[in-house]
Protein 1
Amino acid sequence: MSNILSLNCVECGRSHRVGEVEYVCQTCEGNLDVQYDYEKARSELNKNTLACDHNFTIWRYRPLLPIEPESQVPPLTVGWTPIYNCSRIAERYQVRQLLIKDDGRNPTASYKDRPSALAVARAMEADAKTITTASSGNAGSALAGICASVGMESVIFVPVSAPPAKIAQLQIYGAIVVLVEGSYDEAYDLCLEASKRFGWYQRSTGYNPFTREGKKTAALEISEQLGWDPPDTVIVSMGDGNIISGLWKGFKDLVQLGFIDMRPQMIGVQSTAASAVVDAVAGDGKAREAPANTRADSINVGKPRDATMAIRAIQESGGRGVKVSDDEIVRAITELARYTGVFVEPAAAAAYAGFIKLSEDSLIDRDQRVLLMLTGNGLKDIDGARGAIREPMRVSPKIDLLELEARVASTRDSRN
């Protein structure tokens, strides 16, 4: 049996037995949080077993995941994405160390492969034939790709405003794509209604309690990759809030197991055009639905579905919320790429934009070790990056004309 003890409602606190409920609280329909038998998990997972384990995927942490030990899992290599030490950025902004974890290196190029792999494993346990999710793009493409790897049908609801590259990725994987003429939040509600009517397995963030468990695996990796010495601060962008709540859950799990002694401060970043969680942290701690209109499509959420746990993650860790403008996000894409060689989509760049703002406002201690969680590859949204760059030089195939154009370009650059 898995090491799950119960599923507890994050709103009313009701505890549900395993198998008693599938998705949300029976009393108030609040989100559920998986509770584990840490003593049993500790007997199955320790630093020595991990050191000898050459399965460098999220499944190396199975005793801390809500699947049965003998269950099959999708074959794609999800997780164990690289961490880079960015000394040039650390020097530029005067912090002791700046690390980035690049989850754009996952199979479908985003962090969302983690929860999607776990959701598909759960769906396989339930003998589900079809699985569905609402998505602004990345969760959908992740689910579609993972489903393709096991031959499961996927139905993805996305707003028509989703980047064309993400929609194309969904179609390439063979998903049934439903373009919703409305916002992500409207696509989400329609997806829930459809799954209830047609009996599809539901993966959507903030509804399926196991998405948080998949997302926490990045925190487990960060700690292990850094020799069980996690950073002082972790900065991540927020939409529904499920990633920051998952990261915090992962660090708390490791403290329970005795693998680490301290938990990082969690900092969540949102666009000023979609900032419901940050506004709640700065206010009375309750998230309220608000307009959302940021060009960072992956965090363009007006009704965050995991806001309660995201707010708790920030507050319990002594962290904070940060708002950045869309212009700051676009500029961050370019600066991050030119200092690290890592190209990210706007939502991921929001984390770096938040780091810049905190540094310039002297809100990050110079002695801190900071990690940026980068959630998606830049090729997911080329148009999002093009706003930060000039058109390239264009010349006839003659060396004399090239020399002249090069001089003009050099003069123009020196004036800018």
Protein 2
Amino acid sequence: MRLKTLFAGLLFSLPVFTLSAQEKPSFEQYVEQLKQEALDKGFEQSFVDKTFADVKYLKRAVKADKNQPEFKETLDTYLPKRVPEWKVKRARTAYKENLPLLTKISEQYGVQPRFIVSLWALETNFGRIQGKMPIIDAVTTLAYDGRRETFFKKQLFASMKILDQGHISHEKFVGSWAGAMGQCQFIPTSFLAYAADGDGDGRKDIWNNKADVFASIANYLKREGWNNQKTWGRQVLIPEDFDRDLIMPKSRGRSQWLKNWKASQKSLQEWSDLGLTRMDGSPLPNVNVTAALLMPDDAKGRLYLGYDNYKSLMHWNRSYYFVTSVGYLADRIGYPRIN
């Protein structure tokens, strides 16, 4: 629970009446409050008792939340680390090995298989790295910590709904310190919004079932406006005298970011008329597509034309670097064509 100091730095000459901030409850007391809230939300008493029976405060989750690394990165340093050649080769192999299933999912949801594989590869290294922290413990701990209590309480009650619906057993309900789960690393609220049953067995098992994993990735993108007739974007060159005010400004909030996109986008023909070309100097494609000009790094960094699918990827993870890595790997999976 977030604590606020009511009087900071005040000196009282008379010590009779002093005010102090309300004491924070113990973790055990906080869990009891959560249990009551869960009951108020309609969960059965026996289910609530079972869910919180062995819940533990995870110091490592709080430490991870408070000590996320901050360092200067550029795409030139980021991409080789996130998309090394071995991962490209493994992704192309995984694409070929899973093509029948990927094709089925692609036809159902309208998302190209190479983008499904790219997200799968980058989120969990093809399902190999999913996290081992108990989800209930992690999100309860982070709610109690208080820095983002409202957010993590939402994740807690969403987690309980996932368990109550029978998609995974309590013992196997694990993920990252922040509550990201399964081979596509959905947080609990994203699971409820986007997870899909890819094989029709009545469960959405994004931990072990590739059909569910692929369907969930595809469903997420489709629900966020994906168009399988388009790609994500492309890196471009600009002329020396280019007006850099045409580059889309960055923004912290998604709402403002989308407004910036709408104000900045132009047709490919308009960008061509302004002197933009492909990286080899050849003309941009002659297709009826709009795009925004993006600069993930500073003035001397790479420039990209982002198509509408770029916005769908930014909804998944609002990071220029992440989206660029997804698109780059998807391109490497698709080209040269796999026979």
